[in-house]
Amino acid sequence: MLIxxxxxxxxxxxxxxxxxxxxxKKVIVCGGTGCVAGGSLNVYEELKRLVEEKGxxxxxxxxxxxxxxxxxxxxxHGFCERxxxxxxxxxxxxxxxxxxxxxxxxxxxxxxxxxxxxxxMYKDGDKVYQTQESIPFYKRQNRIVLEHCGHIDAxxxxxxxAHDGYMALAKVLEEMxxxxxCEEVIKSNLRGRGGGGYPAGKKWSQVLSFPSxxxxxxxxxxxxxxxxxxxxxxxxxxxxxxxxxxxxxAYATGASEGYIYVRAEYxxxxxxxxxxxxxxxxxxxxxxxxxxxxxxxDIHISQxxxxxxxxxxxxxxxxxxxxxxxxxxxxxxxxxxxxxxKPTVINNVETLPM
Length: 354
Ligand SMILES: Cc1cc2nc3c(=O)[nH]c(=O)nc-3n(C[C@H](O)[C@H](O)[C@H](O)COP(=O)(O)O)c2cc1C
Ligand code: FES
Fold this sequence. Notes:
The protein has helices at 6-21, 33-37, 40-53, 103-112, 136-139, 157-162, 167-175, 178-187, 200-209, 230-237, 239-253, 267-283, 313-320; strands spanning 23-30, 68-74, 86-89, 93-95, 122-124, 127-129, 216-221, 257-263, 298-304, 344-348. The protein is α/β, with parallel strands linked by helices. Helix 7 (167-175) packs parallel to helix 11 and helix 10 (230-237) crosses helix 12 (267-283). The longest helix has 17 residues, at 267-283.
């Protein structure tokens, strides 16, 4: 169903929020790669089956405003070594190393009788940590970019919208010029997270300053550093935040096409991003005249084959263009001549969520 303009988006947000509030419990099963490898999808299916059997499953279609228990498949909670994880809200219980055999007890004890199951909780000696937030690992974390990871259904655009998703885009389209957006990002001191730390707003305003019939926004999700999974966590757990950030970058720079370059070894990230792009297109948050404005922008996914060097901007762009992924000698900077020799913003995944 198309969202025609910004006021409709705001109405939808209120509707989805009200529907979410009616879910008197939320069961958030970690659907990040680590927990999936440990069997979390089987846990999710079994919990869902049992909740459905009891007739207390809230519809995933938030517009129906059903009361009941919401079942969600989230992105990584960050505590992979203790996965598969299941979080129960509103209590904030976190169950660790959950198996299919534990599901019946979780449904009976926690979802029906409102009782915590201590044997599944984090312990230190005799001390049992009842809530996720009280666990030392989480206690001192202040999540900004990862705010939604582990808290919302990573496969639902409705949930993203209910949590203020696409509101930053609405604000820039409604209230700001592209120059003002660049200025705001410069003022925020946001620096690129891909390693070089280049000021993001400065890069955007440079792309804006070069007139061209075509400009691009490229999201660098190659994440070549061994053992690093921060980009993957965002792409799997909050894909719409990347899409929204790229769309804001497009508005700020005058770009009309975007690419997310993601390594093929991240199949779950590819799946979630693909679904999120399709959902965003279906409601008019990508494509022609986004939210009834003059902004037209669409995103494609380009999969890398896992070469470390393809994380470097010019090699990455050669790879998107179908060439061998090798760094190019640059006579001009990417902001002036990037993808297909057109002005291009390239930002790391972590730089983009706004
Ligand atoms: C050998 C090499 C590998 C790189 N790998 C990555 C990478 O995996 N991810 C990334 O975002 N940037 C990587 N970069 C940096 C990119 O070239 C580019 O500066 C960055 O994507 C820009 O985004 P940012 O301004 O948001 O940091 C690499 C650079 C070099 C020289
Ligand atoms: S994948 Fe589940 S906590 Fe990281």
